[in-house]
Amino acid sequence: MTTPVTRRALLGAAALLPLAAPALGFPDQPVRVIVPWNAGGLADVVIRALGPAMAGPLGQPVVVENRPGANGAVGTQAVAQSRPDGHTLILANAETHAINPLIYPRLPYDALGDFTPVTVFARGPFVLITRPGLGVENLEAFLARARAQAGRVTYASWGIGSTSHLAMERLMKQARLELLHVPFTGAAPASTAVLGGQVDCMFLNAGPAEAIARDGRAKILGVGADERIPLLPDVPTLKELGTPVDAANWFGLLGPARMPQAGAARIAAVTAEALRNPQVQEVFRAQAALPVTMTPEETRRFIAGDRERWGTVVRDLNIRLE
Question: What is the rounded CA–CA span in Å between residue 270 and residue 280?
Fold first, then answer.
């Protein structure tokens, strides 16, 4: 059974995961983490916070390298083809290992067979935001507006087949809405379009959304999580509001296939230890990233289950990209 990504799996669980016995001589060189996205995004921020806290216990620096392209496929493929000694890892998420295999018929990597699961260390819930001038104050008013103007209310995403796109499709199905999709090439241009009033709404990572809503540049209507989050304690979940939609991403580490299991276990344990670092906790809190701990085997089961969860949406939409 997959470890639930809930409060029970958050930071306190790290204390229950002892440090694995070090693999003989591992690591004996810097550990490189490939982030298959542009610098400055949530995935980049959280791994750059974790890296220094992992370096001490590992006895080697953790070097973060951004290698974006093809919805994460460029950097992910590079790790799949790297030496399987555990010194090169991919910063994986739902797009690279659950969604891409479903929507790209010629994906240049096997999301399951080409990788060794290491750990999932964070969950990043999304919030539903609207542009300042839309004139809705809560989810109920937004749903009424969207139903009254079927097909004319627009939503942004950071790409066809992205988590932001599929999360909104989940909301549309749950609430019986018809919205017009306006895809962008990243979260920054998508959210800029909402803030500028060109697009009506979107699902956005909770951390950036809190910052822009604080000064009135957007309105947050609800959180796509089972529970309210510490950064936005007064914002209800979509579940509380009667529209239960799981809208979030996750972040984890995987190595290439045939990476030694002892090395994977050690990285997982060191990552769990790093989550207790106060500086890491502060960065995660500011970004609304919820810490999670998973063993390599729990990570394998979780990713397989996540692929099935997103697969329902992808099959309904019949999404296929070249």
Answer: 13
| Cβ 275 vs Cβ 11: under 8 Å | yes
Strand 248-256 and strand 115-130: the pairing is antiparallel
Task: Name the residue with tokens 């089972």.
Answer: 226
* Cα–Cα distance, 142 to 151 (Å, whole number): 14
For 179-236, how does the pLDDT look when each residue is reduced to its tens digit (9 = 90+)? 999 999 888 899 999 999 999 999 999 999 999 999 899 999 999 999 999 999 999 9
> Taking the model in full, what pTM does it have?
0.88
- What separation in angstroms does the CA of 7 have from each of 204, 235, 291? 21, 17, 9
* 42-67 per-position pLDDT tens digit: 999 999 999 999 999 999 999 999 99
Ordered structural domains, the chain, with CATH: 7-124+249-317 (3.40.190.150), 125-223 (3.40.190.10)
d(CA 221, CA 215): 15
pLDDT in tens, 123-150: 999 999 999 899 999 999 999 999 999 9
Task: Write down the pLDDT at residue 24.
Answer: 54
- pLDDT per residue as tens digits for the range 236-246: 999 999 999 99
Q: Residue written as tokens 């060109």?
A: 198
Question: Is the alpha carbon torsion for 157, 159, 164, 165 positive or negative?
Answer: positive
Three-state SS for 113? coil
Which among 161, 223, 162 is positioned nearest to 187, based on CA atoms? 162
Instruction: Give CA–CA dist 296/81, Å, rounded.
Output: 20
Distance CA 216, CA 135 (A): 13
Q: Which residue's entry shows tokens 């500011």? A: 286
Is the bond preceding 233 in cis, omega lying within 30 degrees of 0?
Answer: no
